[in-house]
Fold these 3 entries.
Entry 1:
Amino acid sequence: MPVPIIIDCDPGHDDALAIMLAAANPAVDLLAITTVAGNQTLEKTSLNARRVCTVAGITDVPIAAGCDRPLLQQLAVADDVHGESGMDGPHFPEPTVDLVPEHAVELIHRILVEHPEPVTLVPTAPLTNIALLLTRYPDSAARIREIVLMGGSTERGNRTPASEFNIHTDPEAADIVFRSGVPVTMCGLNVTHQALATPEVLARFEGLGTELGDICAGLLAYFGSTYRRLWNMPHPPLHDPVAVARVIDPAVVECVEANVTVELHGRYTRGATVVDLHRYLDRPVNAKVAVTLDTGLFWDHMVDAVAALGRTGLERPGARG
Ligand code: BDR
Ligand code: CA
């Protein structure tokens, strides 16, 4: 039976591919896509989710917009990483799929209540919507099978020396999630930096011969230029699909158990995930922490997903008879 999931995202180049992986892989049943402010404003991340679903032919999954700012602090978008649109690079046609007229938190809550089985939440963005859900509807925790998130790191950050973007953008929300008692799996930078989009990976997307394959290659090419400019990295890491891959096939992402605490007060470390891998602190395990990625299997899943959607989505003009 496919695992029922909801993706909560802020597209975002890597969120876009996470949506495609979740929509195409038969091991998961994508029940909804919800959006939040993060990489860009809520308006832009919601538009981008609609753009992705349009080009990928994902027409039967509700998309709902959620919170337009973090719980306590001001929103600081990542336009240096994702550009003015939040998904700069390839051209996207006018979206033909709409948002549903329901707040993301209400949609997630309704699905949790109505679905016959507990649902897995896959946040690939600041955790504002998820924290609000757990705060407003505490009973919904029992209906969540697990939260498999992209965020944090066992090592250093990418927004400050200590903190990763999704956690740094809304540390109070992340704190609520990690302390919620819901099973949490954290796919942080330490593992997503193993998912590097090399020229060989881009060639596999282009080699699909579909419009969607070209769009993915274009997204990764833009992301690559960002990573060279900002971090001097030769290839960009594809963060968000790693969390989806963990749900699809746990063997792709190896995890260890640890206590994870979100630093809320550090003068230079606010938003850091303090991951106690060696049990220095007398604190209970509250998370599975991803440590190793089977890179080959990961990219196979990702390319297969885009290939499958390309058959139903827009065809590249003049490609393959
Ligand atoms: C995370 O931050 C965002 O920019 C990406 O979409 C990803 O979710 C990586 O730190
Ligand atoms: Ca994201």
Entry 2:
Amino acid sequence: MKILITGGAGFIGSAVIRHILSNTQDSVTNVDALTYAGNLESLSNADESERYYFEHVDICNRTELDRVFNTHKPDAVMHLAAESHVDRSITGPAEFIQTNIVGTYTLLEAAREYWNTLSNDAKKSFRFHHISTDEVYGDLPHPDEQEGELTLFTEETSYAPSSPYSASKASSDHLVRAWLRTYGFPTIVTNCSNNYGPYHFPEKLIPLVILNALEGKDLPIYGKGDQIRDWLYVEDHARALYKVVTEGIVGETYNIGGHNEKQNIEVVKSICSILDTLVPKDSLYSEQITFVADRPGHDRRYAIDSSKMQNELGWTPEETFESGLRKTIEWYLVNQLWCENVQNGSYQRERLGEIKHK
Ligand code: NAD
């Protein structure tokens, strides 16, 4: 297969590319605008492969997308390019509207025009796989608020996004669905929980806490730190996405999760205790924890029911949270240069996404 991947220089996209090049004979065209979150250093091994092509293209640029489709003639698209950080979407939503909504629309139209030129057989086997988030569903009842068995997000859960980020992703999911219904364009959607692992840009909770801890800085916890997320190791997600694009049914949505519900404070304490054993010092890393004002509109709990992925596609996560977190911390310990290079002077792990009232 020839797979066109958007956002392949980002955290999850680069894991998908590494997975495909190492485990299949498929070729990959990576379409990426290289924003602050896109780093070709995450793909240094891919450059050595004859099955890898890079196109430095913005998904809002229709002319360039047409050229890319006509040059590389993909059998499938995996669409990951997005603005992805909730805090940045609170400070500046415009780029989220542009890339996540206008960009997805532009990509859908370029892909559909190309698809229309294919033979009937090629048209039938073509796939447009849109990668989305569980945040489109809003938040679930927290154990504080509900007794008994807690509800999970299923593929039937109604959309109720809370942040500019999740609202823009929800919009893009709706566009994809409409292109399927209206034009018969062969789409599949996946909605996944929080990912963690190597090559994660250090604005997100886990890499930020690891790096701040090592530098002796504060470990900021939003609110009381009792928000619950369902964590999935990024390589498990990459495997799931490849299964969906190759074996998933057109028109279906698949929820992907890690069966790892953890409060943010638990995650931070786990990082601290692993660091206490790997890089011991005179004091405990947990002494660096500080509590800061909560994120505006912060969702309290996300949790995914991924039984459809398990029952229909035979996928389950391989990594436990404990093993995945240890691997992640070990990766950051030996890849400090990557961390320095991607931060590039423009972002120094400062607080983002606070609303300043005048
Ligand atoms: P990321 O921010 O690490 O990477 C995004 C990539 O998209 C970067 O390489 C960036 O350069 C590229 N990009 C941004 N705007 C672009 C544009 N206009 N044109 C072309 N490329 C552009 O994101 P990620 O964490 O790897 O997430 C990938 C996808 O998975 C996103 O769609 C996100 O919504 C979704 N997702 C992420 C998570 C998570 O926990 N990170 C969970 C579920 C779903």
Entry 3:
Amino acid sequence: MNKPGKFVQDGKLRIPSTDELGFDPQEVRRKYDFERDRRLRPDGNDQYQDIDGDLKHMIDDPYIIERIEREPVQEEIEVAILGAGFGGMLMAARLHEAGITDFRIIERAGDFGGTWYWNRYPGAQCDVESYIYLPLLDETDYMPKEKYSYMPEIFEHAQRIGHHFGLYQRSYFQTQIRELRWDEVANRWTVTTDRGDVLRARHVVISSGSLNRPKLPGLPGVRDFKGHTFHTSRWDYDYTGGSSTGNLDKLGDKRVGIIGTGATGIQAVPYLGEAAQHLYVFQRTPSSVAVRGNLPTDPEWFKSLEPGWQRERNENFTALVVGAEVEEDLVNDGWTELFKALGGLMEDTGATELTADELNQLGEIVDYQYGNQVRARVTDTLKDPAVAEKLKHWYRPWCKRPTFNDDYLPTFNRSNVTLVDTGGKGVERVTEKGIVIDGVEYELDCLIFATGFEVSRATYTHQADLEIVGRDGVNLGTHWADGMRTYQGLMSHGFPNCFHMGFTQTGYTPNFTYMLDNQARHISAVLADARGRNFTSLEATKQAEEDWLALVTAPNQMTDYLASCTPGYYNAEGTSKGHDGGFLQGHYPDGGLRFYQMLAEWRAEGDYAGLTVR
Ligand code: NDP
């Protein structure tokens, strides 16, 4: 790779020549555009179907061993938390620390864990370093076994947090919230559930997850398939045998098909390839698959860490991924390498003298260099050059979640594994016997959908599967009919004492748990302060909400970047416009770190700016 300094001459940007780079950026750009264009489709998000009606069994909870039997409860509490994933758990832990202990967590699943409760597919692993991904390591005094933990360890850690903070006693599992309704007279929310519970909560915090509702492609014939079928987030180990660590021994005589080669497909495929009589991987768009390099944790190093180390490490990671200056890269992995390549180059060119356009040109070159490295890895790994070509991704790194895996690519060297590339078109249809691509029918015993989750194709309340009725009987779905409307990504006008966590116009980082922890710390500090001051209701003003909307929806670099991307859920399948778009649209423009600082400054001011306080 060229030294960044080569891009500057007499203090001015000099775009290096094709000879110096070893590739022609324009040619790469043309290829990226070509691959994007042939994937764009007019139906965008509508190509997917909800899993309901006669498919609803596909989202039943396969992990519940026994149904919890209990009487309905009627309680008056300070906070109701919706969701027992890491967001809800962090919220509860931080409330506990802030001295607020009369809260309840309500969760449809049978235990803590959220994503890690549902996604038990073989090979499921965190893709951000476990030392920063697994929350509350300091508090629970737990050392992850490896740099990247697998699902059983993460799920177990969720249970550890549950025990450590006494959360089991304050949670209702296997309980689905039906409605949240604001009671203007009592200044409380009435929370009703499918178990007949009625909780009267001063505040509600919704952490129902951003990738919680599995989706299926709207393929003709999907209901006709007579073989076995399931979604990766509801893995059927009764059928496959084995566990999330592998040994899927019941697949030895089965022809298995998997649709989807995103972050989930990449992790599951090596296990399926190892076990199935034959595995067909149906690919529409290849993922970028970089080096994982997992390692066991060094206990001596872990012992040497001072209290507060996890937060410091997270801050270091977050700073790196927003391009801020740091003295040392503590995490030092594929993520930070990627960002260092992108950010470091710009710094070294003396960014103050460069125009936005010049910066974009440099960013593009670095992206292409990174892409070339990942593609070279495919060439080096695959025995068959024709298969290698099909496994190469042609889009910039942030068009889809980058993946890191050392077993995925070699799986395609196995004689019992076939890559069925669909040339960007996707699976054509499903028949009683299997899948049809280009008129060829692939007969299957089992068809697995690694096709992801609903994002921005349905309303927030549909995704969260509940009704939220605010002041004057206004439904949140109606208030957000044209897209989310929040103040600080956390509250909405007309919905007092109701807080949102997750990807709701906040500042984000690739490490979701750190983002959730910062939100939890902020909300718990606000609630503790409000209680100390006897405030009974906090509500975003209309003006504050409008100003925030203007801030987060103003076109920025990311808008243009995503518009040039191959379709996916990050850009609403290539149709994203303003805030009514994909996953990565409509967030705080200055990134996670600055966002958390901004919230801290807001709290320090102490005047609850932007809120009406009663
Ligand atoms: P994604 O939405 O990322 O991937 C869905 C896959 O299904 C894509 O490959 C998509 O192709 C494919 N697909 C959809 N429709 C069709 C069709 N008609 N024919 C063929 N293929 C089709 O879902 P994932 O579950 O993989 O990942 C979701 C997110 O979950 C990730 O982005 C990540 O944020 C998170 N995750 C994190 C992990 C971790 O390690 N921490 C692990 C797994 C997931 P196309 O790309 O063309 O749309």
